[in-house]
Amino acid sequence: MFKTLANQRVLLLVTRGAPRVRGLATQGSSPSFAARPITPAVLHLKTGQSFVGKAFGSPKSIFGETVFSTSITSYTESMTDPSYRGQILVFTTPMIGNYGVPQNTTPIDSQDVGVVLESQGIQCSAVVVADLAERFSHHKAVESLHSWCVRHGVPGITGVDTRAITRILRDQGTTLGRLAIGADASLPAPEVAEYWDPTTENLVDQVSVREPYTLNPEGDIRIAVLDFGAKANIMRSLVRRGASVTVLPWNHDFNSIRDQFDGLFLSNGPGDPKHCMEAALKLRKTFEEWDKPVFGICMGHQVIGMAAGLEAYRMTFGNRGHNQPVLALASSGSIKAGRVYVTSQNHQYALKLQDPFPNGWEPFFINCNDSSVEGIKSTADSGRKVWGVQFHPESAGGPLDTIEMFTDFLAECRNHKERSKIFDSATIDAEPNHSFL
Question: 261: closest CA among 409, 59, 377?
Fold first, then answer.
């Protein structure tokens, strides 16, 4: 036992000038990782703390917004979520990489959308882990987390105390950071003015599709998706329920083509929702002139709120993880008022709770931890069928407590389509027949 402990490789952690030693749990080494020389890495936070560790992944230095996720599994899904664009992602789970990375391709048909994960590549700017698993084991894994990060040009740091980093972010709020790799690790921490804030840029425009495309064209109802940075499991959840899905750029003029569709879906996405005001103003016109169902999640939820007249604000901490409890304030479809649902979340911004709420709208969910708005919906007397939720019903990863909201949305789209057919048929029958006049 003492020999094993003595042989543990250790890395120095520096925070607030106090040296500490951390032992790593992973004892084995894969040949690909062990063959690399140890490259120093330092995570600098704008608030003044620095954490020294060992680099993995791409050997480059980056700036970003430092955030943490409490999710225990699904690091591959988190890293490919476009909502993490521009962010240095800190995993609170001690060991990351133990089940490797799967092949990220699937067929494109009525069940799949071309990728296994949430997008084609890694979306976060960098990753921070306490202990990188140098060996992985999973029947679907084809490469290690380290080699995956190398291929996608994403740096990482391991051997740091992610508990200490998380407490700083929890106490002081999300902060900007700099991950310095190799020779850059020996340089002084950046000056405050040198830190780059990704939220000053329109990150949605960076991750949204450029040209429309359609999935499952044989579906029985047609759904348009405004892509603010959509996770693949959103499209997957729609096509597996029989919908034909047309994915549109975030600022596409939906009103010019809206009559081709049976419903509108607004996806998740990264950054400040105020960059999407163009989409919110177009959506406001949609609400005024179009009565078909609309559903939005995460960024889409915030765009719906802004279109309704609510204000979005930046939260101190944000919510990121797979265990966020939300309380339903109203019943709708599979959702029952008074019940608490456990949800997957990834957001820094939220809608302000105000009294009175805009006419024709009501709160739908509220967060049980911080009382932030987790959902809004149109009222029964508004004549609209619109829902928005801050969390991810499709999860990937996370709990599936609210996955049936996709079924509810598509059921409303189908019902509206059938009612329209009946109304059109009745209108034709009621028209006078002048053929014999």
Answer: 409
